[in-house]
Amino acid sequence: MITKVELKNWKTHLHSELEFAEGVNCLLGSMGSGKSSVLEAVCFCLYGTTPSIQSRKLKIQDLVMKFPTRKHEAEVKVWMEIDGKTYEVVRKVSINKGTYHSEIREDGRLLAAPQTNEVTKVVEKITGVDYDTFVQIVYGEQNRIDAFLSLRPAERKAKMDEILRIDKIESARSNLVTLINNIKKEIQTKESMLTQWKKDMESVDVKKMEEDLEIKRRELEEKKKEAQKLEDELTNKKSKLDDLKQKKAKADILNNRISSLKGEINALLEEIKRNGMSVEELEKKKKDEVEARKSELERTLKEINLKEKELEALKSRKRVIEEQIKRDEEEIRKLEEKLKEAPNVEEIENTIKSLEMEEKSLIEKVSMFKTAIDNERESIDALKKAEAACPVCESKLTYAKKKELIAVKEKRIEEFRRKIGELNVKRKKLMEELNELKKKKDEALKLKSMAEMAEKRRKSVEDSGRVLGSLEKNIQQIEKELKEVEKEKIEKELKEVEKLLDLIEKAGRIRSIEKGVAELERELMSLKVDEAELKEAEKVVMELNQKVGAVKGELSRLNEVIKEKEHRLNEIKERVETIRKIEEEIESLKEKVGMLIKLQDVLIKAQVEIREEFVAALNFQMSRIWEVLYPYEDYQDVKLFVEDGYVLRLLSSEGVWVDADTFVSGGERMTAALTLRLALANLLAPSFKVMILDEPTHNLDSKAVEELGRTLRERAVEVLKQVILITHDETLAESAAEHLYRFERGEGKKDVTKATRVY
């Protein structure tokens, strides 16, 4: 039983809470007031979807409130009591994420969350009702209670088969027929292909192909041996040829080296001869003595160069000192000229002190006048406030007298301000004079420091003069020493000594090269190669290369022939194996066809048996429920007949079965349809005990509506635990409802839904 439903931001419901009890719970309101949204919310909360979403008439985002204010999320909660336990189911949706949270609790304990499918499975297990059964039997979107009777026979059969799930068996049987036909086509295709392949294989001799292949393999092995023998011989001959070539190459290198060395000897001899000497003469010279003389000359020349550098440094320093003396003397002259015009610092300081005292006197006078002004202002304020007597002398004070006294004091204030102005002008001039004197004082102090600077400069000039005299003596001494030395003569002798050393080394180089040439010529004698022998060896190697190439070509050709034969033989063997497998597949497919045909017969029988058994059980339930719902004696029983389509009939008091959709009154037709619905609910949802009816009074007259109301209120609750009824019909609500909610949305239905509990 559903005990409570809570909606937040759900379509037109901002926040609605509805409590349900056993018996008939009625939701009454005009069209568009938000009644059906409650049942849609119940369906969504239990199963995570609704028929409108399944048919794509709505998206999940459409469940969130749009008017009168746009919301971004919605929430629905449903409470149920089943077998003494309380269950709470929650679903939350948003316009961006769809269903983003689901949960179900048993007596406050969490059973599943947050996945939609997990929660739905738990709901189906607890209620014993899956989604299809719920929307087909327990809850139907706005339809007539007798909608089943209004269907054509074929539609009625399809609808009932769908409720019984027989339509799935029919679908499976239809799929079986398609599968059987497809397998038969596959068998025909394989048999046709197999016939053609067997025909192609009739002219093939596999044994002969294998014998030819073996012959070619033996021929290949013989050629490999021949090729190996030729390659071994070629390797031997190539080795001998390489030895001859290496000897010749080495001999050529030695010849080139000898020629190069002899050329170097001739060049060295020519240079010695140009200098008027011979190798023999140079060999007689003592190289150690020549090198010692060279070192002595270099040392002497180095000492002369150092003296010259020292002299140049002294002269440079002399020039720097002379320039510094000139600059210092010029600076002293300029300072002395400025000092002649320097003012007396003490006189300036005395004048500054006198002026500062005068400025202080002026400041004191200004302050005195300002105090006088403040006193006069206080007197004026006192006079303005005084009424009968003077605040000073307490004499009688008239208005004219007060005015006269105030005028006198204001005149004095003006006189004091004028005097302050004159004193400020005088002070300004005094300040300008003081500033000028302070500047003169600063300049005089600067000149005084310049005099000290001039004295330091004079001392510096005197020191520089003494240094300059010492430098003159050193310069004269070094110049005298350099005159006594003949530098050009020493440089000339050094060049001659260096040249002689070079010639001695070249003479030694000649003797060394001659020894090397002799050794190379002896080595060359051992490397003589016979040109005829070399040519013969090259010829033999070339002929062997050609033979090896020819044999390898034959080997390559044989390999290709063998590969082709192996490939062809493998193809034939694979074709034979494929034929065998296809034959096995055909036999297997034929067996499957036989099994599927048997399964098809089983499904047909299952359809018939399930339909017969269910209809028998349904008729038993309807007979029991009919006795409860129908209080009259006109019709004794109701029964569903399986003919071309399902036909619902009533048994008249005369014992005649009449069609409920044509030969009975509206009230009896409605009662028969309700009996069918209740019987289906008892069979397919036995533990849920809830029936939801949405606007069931379509095409019913007022008498039938009242009869439906009484039936629901007085008799249906004996079969069901709870009925949730949605209607706009006041008559039905009054006659049926045990618990009533009234729904309203305001004028123009632009407001949110307001659900008010009436009783």
Structural description of this entry:
It is a single chain. The chain has 759 residues and is of the alpha+beta class. Among the domains are: 2-146 and 683-757, Rossmann fold (3-Layer(aba) Sandwich); 341-487, Helix Hairpins. It contains 17 helices and 14 strands. The chain has helices spanning 35-47, 51-54, 116-127, 131-138, 147-150, 153-164, 166-201, 206-274, 279-284, 287-340, 345-385, 399-483, 487-525, 531-629, 666-684, 702-715, 730-736; strands at 2-10, 13-19, 23-29, 73-82, 85-94, 98-106, 109-112, 635-642, 646-652, 657-659, 690-694, 722-727, 739-744, 754-757. It has a 6-stranded antiparallel sheet, covered by helices on one side. A 5-stranded mixed sheet has the order 11-12-3-13-14, with helices on both faces. Helix 8 (206-274) packs across helix 14 (531-629) and helix 16 (702-715) packs parallel to helix 17.
Q: For the largest beta sheet, what order do the strands appear in spatially?
A: 2-1-4-5-6-7
| Cα-atom radius of gyration | 67 Å
In whole angstroms, the N-to-C terminal distance is: 19 Å
Work out the number of β strands: 14
The CATH superfamily of the domain at 2-146 and 683-757 turns out to be P-loop containing nucleotide triphosphate hydrolases
Percent in strands: 5-15%
Q: Please mark out the parts with pLDDT under 50 across 5 or more consecutive residues, or reply none.
A: none
CATH topology of the domain at 2-146 and 683-757: Rossmann fold
Q: Briefly, what CATH class of the domain at 2-146 and 683-757? A: Alpha Beta
Structural class: alpha+beta
* Count of individual helical segments: 17
Can you name the CATH architecture of the domain at 2-146 and 683-757?
Answer: 3-Layer(aba) Sandwich
Largest sheet: 6 strands, antiparallel
| Principal-axis shape | flat
User: Whole-number average pLDDT?
Assistant: 84
